[in-house]
Amino acid sequence: MIMYGGEIEKAGGPANHMSNGEGVVLKKGPWTAAEDEILYVYVRENGEGNWNAVQKNTGLARCGKSCRLRWANHLRPNLRKGSFTGDEERLIIQLHAQLGNKWARMAAQLPGRTDNEIKNYWNTRLKRLQRQGLPLYPPDIIPNHQLHPHPHHHQQNHHHHQQHQHQQMYFQPQSSQPNTPSSSPLPSPTAINANPSSSFTFHSTNASTAYLLHPLSPHTPTTPQTPSQVSSTPPPPPLSSPLSSPRNNQYPTLPLFTFPSSQINNNNNNTNFTFPRPPPLLQPPSSLLAKRYNNSNTPLNCINRVSTAPFSPVSRDSYTSFLTLPYSSPTAQTATYHNTNNNYSSFSLNPSPSSYPTTTSSPSFLHSQYTPNYSSTSFHNNPVYTMKQEFPSNQIPQIGVFNNVNNFTDNEKQKNTNLHRRSISCNLLEDVLEEAEALAGGDGDRPSKRRQLTASPPNHHNNNNNDNDNFFSVSFEQYDSSENIYSLQDLKPKEEESLQMNTMQDDIAKLLDWGSDSGEISNGQSSVLTDDNLVLDVHQLNSLFPADSTAAETRTNDEQNNNDKINCSWDNLHGVS
DNA sequence: AAATCCCCCAACCGCAGACAT
DNA sequence: CATGTCTGCGGTTGGGGGATT
């Protein structure tokens, strides 16, 4: 096997290397373009997971952890690079106030962002504010630990003595409960939401913030509700079937940050409001996706794994397929909402090429003008690279490149199409399972750490929008801004949904058998836990974060015809790709 | 112009949980 | 049940580069 070590000789001395225990010298330090290409191609072929096998199968002189990190932070599709937007920053602050240094969980709320990015951002911000003597949080955000001090509760990883120390050291101006350096100032997420039916309470010192989070309530009010009303009357449990999907129309999307303060009732300056735990996010039966591979050095191809499962879970083909298949007009898959200015914004429920930021730099091998030679010798000899070996920070694969790399046959495309059809119908079952677990009093509310939030993006690459596809067609075009009501159209009739339920009885039974199982899947995003007690509806986040505006700049005319609106792809949604 | 500071960010490390054997 | 492996998370480090002194 040819070992590719990048620029070992050039880049590093002995300190830049380590052994994998089998005499293979593994490289450390910055990744080169060639290494990226190897990793990218490998993941494309084999899916995520089993990272240690990358080195074994490709000769890439990188440890599994390094490969995983590189993929998650730089190579995976739909990464959103560049500076945080104001909305993102605001959300980060809010999330940090609620979650503390739970970067991965915060990243789950910021489509396309990685935990590392958020962590870096926060640490930088922390440092700056400390230096300037400014408070960490704006006056309208009170950190959760000040509202729900659990001085005796230690976080799960309390061994991290440094955790939150900065905040403890600094952010004390309003705290009546001193935090000792050894105790986490933040309530445990588990403690917050130990009860499946418990609600998450967010406290805000003004109505503005409350309003921002109002849409998080899945119980869309039929009449305008002031934050105080929301606070005083905890929403009742859903009257409809508890077997609900966050993707269905029960929980329409409202923009979180687009409401001008003038429209907000400012009478209540100290608002507490409560919203119930959101419906479970979609995830396949975890046992289907147990990321344990066979003992051979060759990891199971994800597609093969999928094909043997009763349902089609999500795998890497969830993105590769939509990346490689022709993009079709999202006619029935575009959800449009009015904001309060009566402007239209929209996002597409199906991933579209135009949803990819394209003006940020990308690994050169991902660009169409670069035709890599995939022979290992070319990797080794590296004769074709003329670009700087190390990428800049913003590296985003482009759709066109994937098309270049993926020469899927028509049969393969059809296979992917079918897989996604099944994925779509499977997602409802997964929700059913989740809810059933919760109703059964199991610990479905607290999925194991390894159970990752995943669902397949509805792959509308064919133009035959059959019922399965329409299942995810949600249009918010009847939002009445004057009453803050979202009416829904283009929805699948309840009866049809019920029929689907009935026809899936047997499968549900199977699923229930798997309920206690635990596993993990790869979602093509950075790690995302599913036991969020503050999981924002991904639709809401989609409304929050329209695709990188730069994407629109490079769209082709045809694409613009199809997507004359801002698009966010499913793959931008953490855990839903 | 050089030194220093600061910001940004990629990547590493250690640890713990989940799972397989 | 013990042990080993894999993975994910959070904390930390160190280099590059721009701004400032």
TrEMBL record:
Residues 135-200, 213-266, 438-471 are annotated as: Disordered. Residues 23-75, 76-130 form the HTH myb-type domain. Residues 190-200 have a biased composition (Polar residues). The keyword Disulfide bond does not apply. Residues 147-164 have a biased composition (Basic residues). Gene3D superfamilies: Homeodomain-like (1.10.10.60). Residues 26-75, 76-126 form the Myb-like domain. The keyword Repeat applies. It is found in: Nucleus. Residues 165-185, 213-232, 459-470 have a biased composition (Low complexity). This is Uncharacterized protein. The lineage of its organism: Eukaryota, Viridiplantae, Streptophyta, Embryophyta, Tracheophyta. The gene is A10p018060.1_BraROA.
